[in-house]
């Protein structure tokens, strides 16, 4: 075939899509500028008497609640001013700031009303962010308030974290003013668990008495439904006699006999609480064979157990709250942080941390002020300067491991003390 008769070569060019990141950020920024300048606003939202001029299009794009309001046959879709009920004006201002900027400001003092507003307006990101922030701030001083809120809104993760902390520190929590704000259902949920860390069941009874007496007239009638959750079978006969003579039990002649019968019957099949069964032990770990040994010097008791179900243990520590943690080898470049569940007698993985650099010879785990520290050093050559690496983990918030200081000093003759 002659060259002139050949068809021209056509290269196959595939179509591509491009995304302009600057346009995305610039668009949102422009929308925010329009809001600040008060330009093109076509609706006014009124909350607790405060007026918020806005754009229907922006509100509808951000919230299914507003989309339904402005695109349906609802009366609000035609109104220039829409009154919103059930919202705090200050929190609605925070919500609008988020809608127009994409930035959310969260703090403990406005956490709960912010979550409530987000729940009503169907703003999933705000609601999920508030839930995560709650989980990060579950502490002894906040656990009861956060538990009540999480219980009311079914924030299960936060609720479970709060319950664990309440059980662990029940004596302290039960003496707080927040404890007396619990509902009867919340109170019975807390005291019904085996995990309650109390040394005597009388502590539970005293907590119930304090809760009832906080609002005696309103709460006394709840006592018969609360008493079955107290494990009277664990009380001594003297303690039982004291409770039967308590003014609360004999307060109402019509119901006192019912209450007395509940107290007398008790709950013979209920197990001892965690705190009643717990013993103070000095623990020793043999990392080469994954063994843990303990001794109670006062009682002269000891025990020993092996853990074949977990990877080789590198280091172990016990916190001031008597929680047992170990670092175990997960892979060539990762370590697992494991927490010993003393109720179940099993190890549970808490987190994963990158191994310290390859030159690190000795590795340690220790606890201090609510944090765990993964510490390593090279002690193989006592003639040279020793180097360290350290990572920190907040055991209360379950956050990511963070790098700490890296130091160098001539401490070749010293041993680390934890």
CATH class of the largest domain: Mainly Beta
Give the CATH superfamily of the largest domain: Kelch-type beta propeller
- The best one-word shape is flat
The share of residues in helices is: 25-40%
Tally of individual domains:
3
Portion in beta strands: 15-25%
Main beta-sheet annotation: 5 strands, antiparallel
Quick overview:
With 418 residues, the chain is an alpha+beta fold. Strands 11, 12, 13, 14 and 15 form a 5-stranded antiparallel β-sheet that branches.
What is the fold's blueprint, element by element?
Layout: H1 21-37, E1 43-47, E2 50-54, H2 56-62, H3 64-71, E3 81-83, H4 89-101, H5 111-121, H6 124-136, H7 143-153, H8 156-168, H9 170-174, H10 184-191, H11 202-214, H12 216-219, H13 223-226, H14 237-244, H15 253-265, H16 274-277, E4 282-286, E5 291-296, E6 301-306, E7 313-318, E8 324-329, E9 334-341, E10 346-354, E11 362-368, E12 371-377, E13 386-394, E14 402-403, E15 408-409
Parallel strand pairs: 1-3
Antiparallel strand pairs: 1-2, 4-5, 5-6, 7-8, 8-9, 9-10, 11-12, 12-13, 13-14, 13-15
Helix pairs in contact: 2-3, 4-5, 5-6, 6-8, 7-8
């Amino acid at each position: 075939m002659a060259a002139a008769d050949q068809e021209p070569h056509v290269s196959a060019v595939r179509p591509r899509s491009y995304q302009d990141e600057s346009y995305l950020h610039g668009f949102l920024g422009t929308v925010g500028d329009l809001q600040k300048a008060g330009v093109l606003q076509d609706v006014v939202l009124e909350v607790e008497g405060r007026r918020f001029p806005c754009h229907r299009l922006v509100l509808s794009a951000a919230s299914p609640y507003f989309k339904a309001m402005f695109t349906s046959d609802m009366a609000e879709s035609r109104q220039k001013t829409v009154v919103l009920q059930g919202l705090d004006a200050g929190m609605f201002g925070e919500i609008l700031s988020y809608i127009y900027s994409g930035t959310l400001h969260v703090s403990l003092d406005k956490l709960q009303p912010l979550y409530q507003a987000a729940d009503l307006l169907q703003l999933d990101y705000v609601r999920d962010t508030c839930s995560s922030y709650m989980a990060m701030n579950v502490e002894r001083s906040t656990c009861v308030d956060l538990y009540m809120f999480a219980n009311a809104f079914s924030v299960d993760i936060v609720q479970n974290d709060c319950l664990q902390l309440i059980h662990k520190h029940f004596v302290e929590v039960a003496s707080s003013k927040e404890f007396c704000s619990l509902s009867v259902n919340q109170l019975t949920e807390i005291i019904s668990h085996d995990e309650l860390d109390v040394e005597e069941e009388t502590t539970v009874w005293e907590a119930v008495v304090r809760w009832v007496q906080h609002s005696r007239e309103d709460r006394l009638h709840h006592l018969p439904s609360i008493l079955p959750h107290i494990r009277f079978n664990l009380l001594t006969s003297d303690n039982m006699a004291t409770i039967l003579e308590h003014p609360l039990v004999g307060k109402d002649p019509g119901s006192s006999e019912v209450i007395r019968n509940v107290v007398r019957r008790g709950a013979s099949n209920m197990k001892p609480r965690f705190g009643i069964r717990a013993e103070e032990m000095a623990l020793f770990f043999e990392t080469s064979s994954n063994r843990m040994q303990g001794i109670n010097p006062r009682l002269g008791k000891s025990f020993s157990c092996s853990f074949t179900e977990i990877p080789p243990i590198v280091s172990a520590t016990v916190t001031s709250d008597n929680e047992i943690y170990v670092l175990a080898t997960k892979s060539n470049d990762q370590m697992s942080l494991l927490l010993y569940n003393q109720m179940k007698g099993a190890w549970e993985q808490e987190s994963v941390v990158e191994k310290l650099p390859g030159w690190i010879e000795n590795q340690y785990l220790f606890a201090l002020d609510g944090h765990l520290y993964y510490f390593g050093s090279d002690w193989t050559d006592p003639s040279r300067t020793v180097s360290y690496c350290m990572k920190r983990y907040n055991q209360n918030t379950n956050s990511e491991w963070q790098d700490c200081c890296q130091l160098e000093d001539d401490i070749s003759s010293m041993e680390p003390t934890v």
